[in-house]
Amino acid sequence: MGKINKVGWIGIGRMGSPMVQKVLESGYKVAIWNRTRSKAEALTPYGAEIVSTAEELSTVDVLFTMVSTGQDLEQVCFGENGVIRENQSPRILVDCSSIGADQSTAIREKLSQRNCQLLAAPVSGNGKCVKAGKLSSVVSGPKEAFDAVESIIKAYSVQGVSYVGEGELARFCKIAHNVLLAVVTQNLAEITVLAEKAGITRHAFLSFINNSVMGSIFSRYKTPALVNLDWTTTFTPYLLRKDVDLGLKEARELNVSMPVTAATREALQTHFGAAQSKEDPEAYLSSDFSALLETVAVQAGITLKSENKTVPTGLEVE
User: What local confidence, expressed as pLDDT, does residue 274 receive?
Assistant: First the structure.
């Protein structure tokens, strides 16, 4: 596909910013655009070039996007001042957003008409994972396009990059990933509350889990939130519920039984009901999904308090 000389990036949020920083630190020159320019300006000390409109990125060889929804991706690509122009488009678009397969397919078809190949490349992890070198990616789309940009993806996906095939298979993997996220989070909340009601502090119990064969990157970096009741948003209950619903939809279509996921979906729904007792339900449901711990605790008849403990996350950057 030829050498990649120009790299563009759209979407400088909680995830996009540290991802771009990793790419810049790997020696690539990156031109960036973000609706809120001030967020993009934080990357100029690392060598990022800020452009005024998405349209200015139409001349790059490869464009990366990290936006909130399929509608946002549609807008930055094909909307007014969008990056995909009638006579000029990037050769490759690498979308790191979490969007539906149907939306991705429709966008892929429109891009192909402008000689732009789409790689679906959702990620696993949050901004702290990026900084600690623990982010991973799953990618699908044309193999020749993947081969051309693999080294750039590896710059921010230090933990690993998995190419899984053509089309929207990476979107499917991300849905399956988030179904697992929901099931693990619900069960982690349940056993943590069980241990606390038996008289074990959360920090001691989670230290044991994290040091056991059942410990994981996820359980470690969520431990400070569960110990200190810090619901700073990394992923909302709304988004988690959406992905569980998508996973169950795929299961019905493919005739796969998922009883544990179905039970988790109903447990997750109780969190939405419990939120109605809060002073600001919408604000509460916009906080982190790990607040599920509070709903499980209420059902167990206990009131949680922060343990005010400094605990390792497993994401400490040396």
Answer: 96
Q: Which residues of the chain have pLDDT under 70?
A: 1-2, 317-318
CA distance 187 to 208: 16
CA distance 69 to 201: 39
Q: Whose CA is closest to 115, among 1, 32, 192, 229?
A: 1
For position 19, what pLDDT does the model report? Answer: 97
Q: Which amino acid is at 50?
A: I
Q: Which alpha helices (DSSP H) does the chain contain, by range? A: 16-25, 37-41, 70-78, 101-112, 127-132, 143-156, 169-197, 202-211, 217-228, 237-253, 259-274, 281-285, 292-299
Instruction: Say if CB 206 and CB 193 are below 8 A apart.
Output: no
Domains and CATH numbers, the chain: 7-167 (3.40.50.720), 172-299 (1.10.1040.10)
274-287 burial, b for 16+ CB within 10 Å, e for fewer? bbeeeeeeeebbeb
Task: Report the pLDDT value the prediction gives residue 141, as an integer from 0 to 100.
Answer: 98
The pLDDT value recorded for residue 303 is 95
Rg, C-alpha atoms of the chain: 21
pLDDT attached to residue 61: 96
Cα distances (Å, whole numbers) of residue 80 to 35, 85, 127, 225: 13, 10, 30, 41
Crossing angle (nearest 10°) for helices 237-253 and 169-197: 120
Residues 243, 178: contact at Cβ < 8 Å?
yes
Whole-number pLDDT of residue 5: 82
Nearest C-alpha neighbor of 166 from the set 137, 147, 138, 141: 141
Backbone angles phi, psi at 174, to 5 degrees: -70, -35
Q: What is the DSSP letter of 48?
A: P
Locate 35 and state its tokens.
């609706």
